[in-house]
Request: fold
Amino acid sequence: MANLQHIRRRIKSVKNIQKITNAMDMIARSRFNAAREALLSNVPYVAKTKEIMRRVMGQMRGQEYEHPFIKTRDELIADQQEGAGKFLFIVIASDKGLAGSFSSNVFKEAHDTIEYDGTSESSSLDSDDDDENFHKKNFDALKGIKPAGKRTPKQQRQMSATGGFARASGRRSGGGKSSGGTTSEAREYNDADYIEGVELITVGRKATTHFKQRGYNIIKSYHGISERPQYKYAKEITDLIMERFESGEIIDVTLIYNQFKSAISCAPDNVTLLPIVTDDYAKASANLKEEYIYEPDVVSILNDFLPRRIATRIYGAMLHSAASELSSRMNAMSNATDNAQELVGRLNLFYNKVRQAGITNEINEIVGGANALE
Reply:
């Protein structure tokens, strides 16, 4: 028979945990409201930068120009096949745990994007729509191929079958649908050579710990800002990636984060920040009827505007991640509190049954002793 004192201690322990989870739930709820308001306030600014980017790129259509951050699709493919530089991934996760599957979903998306590098014919321009309506879009993952001389035999077979690019199989990274193109097997990059061709910038202690334990090269990490992101950190990341991209050290920058959809839903997502592919803006800019006169010239405007655009995308992803983290923690702690309440109820029922059985046994012993005296 179970010890009544042991059951009482168990009930007390569960109630203490329930108080902690309930307090964490209330804290997450109060912070979530602020994070959601910050995200919603940032949406019009992101939408406006998107519109300006389309108009500037439309104005440059047909002009002869060279820009280190803007490439045509043919130039991008050539750079990737030549192995001109490394691939940089910005992974945004959390500083703390107890947020359900928030961080693990980001890590899974990151590994799917890094180790299984699918490409599609969808436009990366559509990714900007996420900031306006929080709906998932297909992103153009133009990350191409591992540098020449470091490809596995499996990569070589896939490149031969797809003409230099391995297309995504039925499952798109980020949960999107495939583009309907020719499919091939998922590429598995688990060798040390491929890791050497990848660099990471991590936001959140969980991300730093996760990828450091797996041998990835983390060139920069940010801690203590996952719940309260600030624009200055997005600007600092932007300056770093633009400097490395312009110097040729990296040829592709991908942003991986949790996209906020609602208070009970978020999904991992990835966005290609650099390079900007002119082909993706050709169709959208063709529909713009108004033309503007830019002073001093459109290229100068683009040079000043492009860092702001990229910083805005990174800051928006941080806001998405903060709202997603707090909503995930809020839901996880609410479920934990409800489970603790249910467990206390079962323990109380079990306690009463054991106590009743003990009283019944004592009564039986008293009656048995009285009968023996007769």
Q: What stands out?
A: Residues 117-127, 129-191 have pLDDT under 50 and may be disordered. The first strand starts at residue 70 and ends at 71. Residues 298-373 form the longest helix (76 residues).
